[in-house]
Amino acid sequence: MLLETVIGLEIHAELKTNTKIFCSCSTEFGAKPNENTCPICLGIPGTLPVLNEEVINLAIKAGRAVNCSINNYNKMDRKNYFYPDLSKNYQTSQYELPMCVNGKVDFNYEGKEVSVRINRIHIEEDAGKLVHLEDEPVSLIDYNRAGVPLVEIVTEPDLRSPGEAAEFMRELKAILEYAEISDCRMDQGSIRCDANISVRPYGQEEYGTKVEIKNINSFREVQKALEKEEIRQKELYQYGEEYKIKQETRRWDAGKGKTLTMRSKGEAHDYRYFPEPDLTPIIIHDNKVESLEKLLPEMPIEKRARFVQEYGLSEKDASIIIGSKALAKFYEEVVNEGANPKTASNYILGDLLRLLNANNMEADDIKISPKNLVQLFNIIEEGKISNTAGKEVFKEIFKSDRPVLDIIEEKGLSQISCSHEIEKFVDEVLNNNPKSIEDFKAGKTQAIGFLMGQVMKASKGKANPLVAKQMIEKKLKNMLIYNDFYLF
Ligand code: ADP
Ligand code: ZN
Ligand code: MG
C-alpha cells in the first residue's frame, strides 16, 4: 500500500526580551539556579502580573515575518495543569484568540518550492526546569526559566516528509533570528519543537491518527525522531494493524534512537482553560502592526535569492549560508572586503563549518576578522603559500585571528618554488615508492596523484604543487623511455 506521511509542527521560541513576561526578573541564560526569580514568577498567591509590552511587539513581528494577520482584540487565558516546574499550577497562555493567525512560510526543499501554512502564533510563559539527580531519589527545580516569554508557532499539517520538516525548522529559525525575535540557541533550549506525525493511504483525504513527539531540541534529532516514527506507523499499516496507532504523546530518546510512549494525549478540556482574570484584554491597533512591520529586515528567502543572483552561489550553498544570520553576515563582510565570492563560500562551507562543528561553536562565535581572511585568500592566490598551507593558516586564524603574515612567518609556510629544492623531495618520494612507479609503467596514471600527495606531505605542504607535478610527470615519462635501464 502506498502511504503518505503527514507532519505538523508546534515550535516554541523564547522571545529576546531583557525581562520576563509578567515581572522584571532577568531572562539571562546561565544564571545560578533560582537567581532570576521573584514572588510573581514563583507564583506566590496574592501577586499580580503586569504584561511586558516588548512581548507583544516581538509577537507581532513574528506574526508579520510569517505573513500572519494580527488580531486587534486579544486576551490571555489560564491553562491549568499540575507539574512541579509550574509553581502557579497554571500557565498563562492564549487559547481561542491567539495573537497571530493564517500565515505561511515558503522555502525550498530538494529543489522544489514548499509552502507551509501557519495556523496560529500565541504568546505564553515558559515553565521552570527540573533537574533529576542521577542515582538519587531527589529532583531539583530551577525557576529561572519560569515566566520567560515564548511564542508558540503552530503549523497546519502541510509537511510531507521528515526531511521537509527539518528544512522548515531551519527556515523558521532563520526568520526568527533575522527579525531578532529569538536567539534560537538550540543548545540553550531557546527554540524547541513538538512534532506531530501520521500516515494515510495516498489519495485519502482524511488524515490518519497522529502521534505527538516531544522533547526534541535539534533539527537533526527532529528529522531522526520523525523518520523512526514514520517507519513504525508505516509498518503497522503494512501488517493491517493501523488501529494500533493511538493518539498519544511519545518521547524521543536520542540515546536509544527511538520514540517511547509517554502518555496518552490530553484533550483541551483537561486543561480547564478560562480567561486570565488578572490581565486586561490586549488591543492592538493596525498602525502599531504597520510600524513594527517596517522594522523587519531582509528575510532569509530574499537574502537567499540575492546571494544566488549577486554572488553566483548555488541554491544549496546559499541556503546553508543564509541558514544562520551570523554566517550570512560574515560571508557578506568577507565578500565586501574584496574576496572572490566563490572562494569565500568554499572556505566558509568547508573549513569554517567543519571547525565550528568540531568545536561545538555557532556562527555567532566566529573570531576571524574578514580583513584577515581576505588577506589569506590573496596570499594563496599569489602563490606565496600553497592551498595546504593555507588551510593550516586558516585553522590558526580560526583560533586566534592573529595576522596571517605572522603565522606564515612563524610556521615557515612560504611556498617553495625553487626547482632544486623541490627536486630533492621528488627524488626522495620516487625512491621510496617503487610500487607507484610500476603502476605508472603499467598505465595507471592515478599513481601521479598519489606521488604528488607524498611530495606535498614530505615538504609539509610547502612545495609549489604545479612545479612538483610537472617534475614528477617528467621523471616518470623519462623512466618509461629508459624503462628498465633507468637507474636512480
Ligand atoms: P490538538 O488538538 O491535538 O492540539 P491540533 O489540530 O491543534 O491538534 O494540531 C496540533 C498540531 O498537530 C498542529 O501542528 C497540526 O498541524 C498537527 N496535526 C494535526 N493533525 C495532524 C495529523 N493528522 N497528522 C499530523 N499532524 C497533525
Ligand atoms: Zn520574577
Ligand atoms: Mg491544538
TrEMBL record:
> Know the name of this protein?
Aspartyl/glutamyl-tRNA(Asn/Gln) amidotransferase subunit B
Q: Which HAMAP family match?
A: GatB (MF_00121)
GO MF term list: ligase activity
| Taxonomic superkingdom | Bacteria
Instruction: Provide the top EC class.
Output: ligase
- What residues does the Asn/Gln amidotransferase domain cover? 329-476
What PROSITE patterns does its record include? Answer: GATB
Function, please?
A: Allows the formation of correctly charged Asn-tRNA(Asn) or Gln-tRNA(Gln) through the transamidation of misacylated Asp-tRNA(Asn) or Glu-tRNA(Gln) in organisms which lack either or both of asparaginyl-tRNA or glutaminyl-tRNA synthetases. The reaction takes place in the presence of glutamine and ATP through an activated phospho-Asp-tRNA(Asn) or phospho-Glu-tRNA(Gln).
Chemical reaction(s) catalysed? L-glutamyl-tRNA(Gln) + L-glutamine + ATP + H2O = L-glutaminyl-tRNA(Gln) + L-glutamate + ADP + phosphate + H(+); L-aspartyl-tRNA(Asn) + L-glutamine + ATP + H2O = L-asparaginyl-tRNA(Asn) + L-glutamate + ADP + phosphate + 2 H(+)
EC number(s)?
6.3.5.-
Task: Keyword check for Acyltransferase, yes or no.
Answer: no
Oligomer and partners: Heterotrimer of A, B and C subunits.
Task: Give UniProt keywords alphabetically.
Answer: ATP-binding, Ligase, Nucleotide-binding, Protein biosynthesis
Q: Which family does it belong to?
A: Belongs to the GatB/GatE family. GatB subfamily.
What the entry lists under NCBIfam families is as follows: gatB, PRK05477.1-2, PRK05477.1-4
